[in-house]
Amino acid sequence: MQRIRSFVEQTLLVWLILASVVFFQLGSSEGQGRELISWAKQNTMQAAVMLAMFCIGFLLPPEEFREVLRRWKSVLGGTFTQYMTMPLLAWLITVLFQFEGALRVGIILVGCVPGAMASNILTLTARGNVSYSICLTTAATLLSPFVIPVLLLMLVGDSQRPDPWLVFENLVNTVALPVLVGFAVKSSWRSGLKKVDDLVAVIANVAIVWIIGVAVGENAERLGALTLWLGAGLLLINLGGYVAGWYSGGLLLRLDTPSRRALTLEIGMQNAGVGTMQALSLFPDPLAAVPTATYTFGCMLTGTLLANYWNRSSVQAESESAALPAQE
To answer: Does pTM top 0.85 for this prediction?
Structure first.
């Protein structure tokens, strides 16, 4: 099971692409294909997000909550940076590129949602501080029911603004509570956890792939009409998040290099599953889910490239450091 987990996590981008292709074909077809996508949207999306969040809670080591309390200043500082920079970046992109309607809503949602579980995995690859990464993801996820309604109230136009209480209730039921329940179940389970952890991690990734696939299938007819401007705008949000994470970690929070890497990946990589579910359930036009689903591919690709670069640079630095005594 550990090998399966490692394989799924390392090839997640591939599975996202394959699922999107399959669901795109189903969504583009007439008859049963479209009916299947419609059924999946109505009956499985919320359950899939809740399952993914439960898995995230289950995978949280109990000591991580104590770590959040111990280093609360750096955790809250990083979370504050994320919720300040990413929504602002998303809003600026909608203004600069003049996005309107459902696309504008979807792009703003990209900036408002908390960080993704994938950032924790890539932080490990990047030789970053995984514990700090998990603390950031936990804090941002648990705060999301309180922060996201306020951000949407501020950034989304009156004609498309959802009821803040409805957003809060939705996020509590589908994000915060499942995480807490998953953590409670894990805390009460005392033996044989490693294999269970690996299975739960696989289930979480499968749920994310399903969510993105359904969103792509639901918007199959609209995807062909989109231009490269959307991709460019989302890429700028992603890269801007990395820049904000790296420099705020060094200049404002005074973090060490491993923690700066964790913060950089955490801010740049957003939880597209939560954003996609919010877009499909809170806004009448399913086109709002296109930016959140599309962002998944971009941040997975750039995050993987960045993590691998940091991994290689760390290995090279260690090799050079080990060679110094021999040269003397």
So the answer is: no
